[in-house]
Here is the input.
Amino acid sequence: MTQTVARLLAESLEAHDVDQIYCVPGESYVGLTSALIERNSIRVVVCRHEAGAGYMAVADGRLRDRAGVAVVSAWAGTVECDGLAAFGLSRRDTGRDASGAGGA
Here is the structure.
């Protein structure tokens, strides 16, 4: 089997103990989606909207005390998820929500 960037990325995700990702499949990363499905070791959760995928990944990370992973398209997906990673990290680091109040 030919080694591709998509396969290398799938292997890297596995090596970092990622067991599920959230995404809105698109043609910009169809190779990665195919590689993940071929390997069948990472659950691919198909979402309806990029922001939803981002929020699910943040919630997954918080609930399981690990990195939550969202895969989004280059332009629209990045805009839709803007700030979610920072929000997830800030809550994790400080235990406070976006308003500064104490969190769970």
Observations:
- Helices lie at 5-15, 30-39, 50-64, 76-80, 84-94.
- The chain has five helices and three strands.
- The beta strands are 20-23, 43-46, 70-71.
